[in-house]
Design goal:
Layout: H1 2-27, H2 36-45, E1 49-50, H3 61-70, H4 82-94, H5 104-113, H6 120-136, H7 139-149, E2 151-153, E3 156-157, H8 159-167, H9 176-185, H10 199-215, H11 219-227
Parallel strand pairs: 1-3
Antiparallel strand pairs: 2-3
Helix pairs in contact: 1-6, 3-9, 3-10, 5-6, 5-7, 9-10
């Protein structure tokens, strides 16, 4: 009986791994039809705004803005920023205001594959899917996925939806200032609105623009990703 139970558990684990890997491989080539967060917002907002666009149809200022705002070591790490995680843990021990340290890769894994919430099980699965997408997708694909599935406003997903609703233009023609404003929304997309930026958002937009200036051009690392 023990041997039979162990065999069932081993088979379950094996097939779970196979399904996860095949799922990630499939999404390397096709957009996800829906995410947990989108389904959740449909019930709350009576519909969502979303339009998938390839990375080359998004202004180069937009990936630069999200990297500047969310994960400046994106092209250097393999999914996890250990130093940022250590600093966040130290901060959270001293402060009631929780600081996160998720990379763009981790946020993409969470947005695409997992349900909303904060549990140890979900965090463990987030780490697992982060490892998989870093191994199977290119950095360019991770950026493309993130820019299309991240919540960019209440009921809006992806930069194309917010570009059209707030600026009446496609994401391909976003200026640096507009890209920085969208990036400023990302930490709290249901609280902030790029269509009606508050004074705080304008200050954060200015900070993102300064970081973009320091990072410079993303053409070289992204070209390297295309060559792989």
């Amino acid at each position: 009986m023990i041997r039979r139970i162990a065999g069932i558990l081993a088979a379950t684990v094996l097939w779970s791994v196979v399904v996860c890997v095949l799922w990630v491989v499939l999404l390397r080539f096709v957009p996800p039809p829906v995410t947990w967060e989108m389904a959740d917002q449909v019930g709350e907002q009576d519909g969502i705004a979303r339009k998938w666009v390839p990375l080359d149809a998004i202004s180069p200022a937009m990936p630069l803005a999200v990297i500047a705002a969310e994960d400046q070591l994106f092209f250097e790490h393999h999914g996890f920023d250990i130093e940022a995680m250590r600093k966040a843990m130290d901060h959270n021990e001293r402060s009631k205001k929780v600081r996160g340290a998720s990379t763009i890769s981790q946020q993409t894994a969470k947005n695409v594959f997992l349900w909303p919430g904060r549990t140890y099980v979900r965090k463990g699965l987030e780490a697992w899917f982060t490892v998989l997408i870093e191994a199977i997708w290119s950095k360019e694909r991770i950026l493309e996925m993130y820019l299309n599935v991240a919540e960019t406003g209440r009921g809006r997903f992806g930069v194309e939806a917010t570009a059209r609703q707030c600026f009446r233009k496609p994401a391909s023609t976003l200026s640096r200032e507009q890209a920085a404003l969208i990036a400023a929304v990302l930490p709290s997309p249901r609280r902030f609105d790029a269509c009606k930026p508050s004074a705080y958002m304008r200050r954060r937009q200015a900070w993102v623009l300064r970081q973009m200036g320091q990072l410079g051009d993303l053409t070289a690392p992204m070209a390297g990703q295309r060559a792989k």
